[in-house]
Write a structure and sequence with these properties.
The structure is a homodimer of 208-residue chains. Chain A is of the alpha/beta class and 208 residues long. Chain A is 39% helix and 12% strand. In chain A, 28% of the residues are buried. In chain A, the strands form two sheets. Chain A has a four-stranded parallel β-sheet. Chain A is built from seven helices and six strands; from the N terminus they run αααβββαβαβαβα. At the A-B interface, helix 1, helix 2, helix 3, strand 2 and helix 4 of A face helix 1, helix 2, helix 3, strand 2 and helix 4 of B.
């Protein structure tokens, strides 16, 4: 392919930047020219941080979350309850749950959800390793915390069946009206579920 | 500041990415997690390309365009006409004009336009060096190719006055209806200018 820019160094940087999702060549050029206007230190720090991150981060052998060590800090934290495992789709979901500061159990990162449309079957996800982990003993409850989407629900049901003979408690996140949302703007399926799964008002003060 | 992520390598990469203009921490995290899912080679290539670009690219001592050499390939190209200099705001504008393949003269990159609102005075731009270049001789025409904005027009007028006693021809880009645009959607100031500066129809076939 013909070079777009006179400078092959600029061409290289723009090409590499535009391989990132959501960045077209126009945006990539804008970012590259911005870096050229800054101190050399900024581009060097960015470049080195990306390389160090990719080289230094691996996946936890227990829960498949990102980790700088074989077993991640969450799995090896003695203050956390190893008898509860929250099953999530991605590493980002672990970050979201950690930010709530409400959860003290461990995680299991699937790496996606079953999606026949995208050619993702159960074998491409960390489902076998979840079943093995539960069969290994010591786990009382598995919380399915996947998206409330068609693929998420399918995956939850698949995992529920796979765990059927282990005797573990399988729960899932409550479905209901989002905090801060008006009833008027809540869809009817969510409203229906929130009615069926209604909770005692007194419990909403956190002493349930 | 407290770390947002357990991994300081992820924290470092997200922090550096989010220093880029237009990238918030959410987008930075998305990009970092994307790189973690790709082959190590991709993050390393990106990091190295950014560092190599920043270290290898400097500014042409003649026209102030980006260059890997002291004098850029455009300024040192013997096939180009050194008697015509096109004054542009940024490096990006040089790329845009080069893409037209219509221009065979040289450039002068100002590095911005005069903008009292943003605290940019003439001394922060490559205007003195333009005047020196013209006074150095050998230049017949200076084409002002700045934006048709308030700041762009102010800067053009300032440069026009600074070049007043050099005897050089000072021209500016034609203002008119954008190619592909309907009259209906063209603003009245542009329409007025396009009427005053109308050209002979026969000239539009390129033989003018």
């Amino acid at each position: 392919m013909e070079q777009e820019f006179e400078s092959s160094l600029l061409e290289g940087a723009v090409t590499e930047l535009s391989r990132l999702p959501g960045l077209g060549r126009k945006t990539a050029l804008r970012l590259a020219l911005h870096l050229l206007r800054q101190d050399e230190e900024q581009a060097v720090s960015l470049g080195e941080a990306l390389i160090a991150m990719r080289r230094g981060i691996k996946y936890c052998t227990v829960c498949h979350n990102i980790s700088e060590t074989d077993v991640c800090p969450i799995c090896s934290d003695p203050r956390r309850d190893p008898s509860v495992v929250c099953v999530v789709e991605t590493v980002k979901d672990v970050i979201s749950f950690e930010k709530t500061r409400q959860y003290t159990g461990l995680y299991h990162v699937l790496g996606g959800v079953i999606s026949p449309m995208d050619g993702v079957g159960p074998d491409k996800l960390e489902i076998d390793s979840l079943v093995d982990r539960v069969k290994g003993g010591g786990i009382r409850e598995v919380i399915l915390a996947l998206g409330a989407t068609m693929d998420g629900e399918t995956t939850s049901f698949y995992i529920y069946r796979r765990l059927g003979d282990t005797g573990v408690i399988v729960s899932q996140l409550a479905r209901g009206v989002s905090v801060g949302n008006e009833i008027e703007y809540t869809d009817e399926i969510t409203l229906g579920r929130s009615l069926i799964n209604r909770t005692l008002f007194a419990d909403s003060f956190g002493n349930g």
